[in-house]
Amino acid sequence: MSERLPELKIDALLVSSPANVRYLTGYLGSNGILLVTKADAHFFTDPRYAIEASQQITCKVHVEKKPLLVGAGGVIKRKRFKKIGFESSWLRYEDYLKLKEELPLGSGLQPIGKVIEEQRMVKSASELDLIRRSVATNSEAYSKTIRRVHAGAREMDIAAELDYQMRALGAEKAAFETIVAAGVRSALPHAHPTAHRLGENELLLIDMGASQDGYASDMTRVAHTGEPPKRILRLYKAVLEAQLAALRSIKAGVTTGEVDAAARDVLKRHELDRAFVHSTGHGLGLEIHEPPRIARKDKTKLQAGMAITIEPGAYIDGLGGIRIEDTVLVTEHGCEVLTPTPKDFIEL
Quick one: what percent of the chain has pLDDT higher than 90? Predict the structure, then answer.
């Protein structure tokens, strides 16, 4: 990262995003910041993580009993830096003011935006191996759980079983709060699991992801108790058609907006465009939501090595919702769908 400082016109960069700190240092703890300079880097943490940091960090480690920003400010003063970049999406205003107080006279703070996140968009071979493992764990947890789901099961119990299976298979946690929504509640794209019991003839939407070795996966599948009515089947087929169209559009050089349009155009032909209320996907890696966004009119160009989701959906109040989502690797001439779980509309 130090080689980017002249381009950013800063003398040092304060990194406070936990994911960015991990990306640059490998640090796994919950309290740490990094000061990157043109010549070296300084990592700051508190005594709880002193041993962990000494084992994981290769740059200079500062174990602080005072606030970490005060420690960083001390290094900035000693080295007489004038322009210090910071992550505007992560530094709280209260901390911004505290850091500003620590700076020497004549020094200033400069927001840098998502520079590190943009660097993280293209994954290394080792990162892709970890994402593949996370995807495999996620899909196996789904497979082990769905075969036991039956009418009468509560949404929260299904979610708990999914989370348990992910952990039992090697994930450290779910990548986000597992979504389980039954019946008309499946029309809520980000429904929270409740005590609602799955009915005899109801849709079931499951959106889940594993975090394994720090890397996320993401998948959505839908099922139905009993034989689905024709209206639900038509909705499912339309969303599946949209997802497959988006997948076919992917390759290096294509904009994310074009991929989004491929899905949206299909749903428009089925008069479901207004029922598609979110973007077609997002990047993932150390975080469940990373750049790029697969969104309407977005002009980010896909690059080989990006890991993204493709997840069009259609949601009809009073009926239910369908979303089909895979984790996908962008390649030079297309894409590789990493999610092995079939997209058949299963009857429970």
Answer: 95
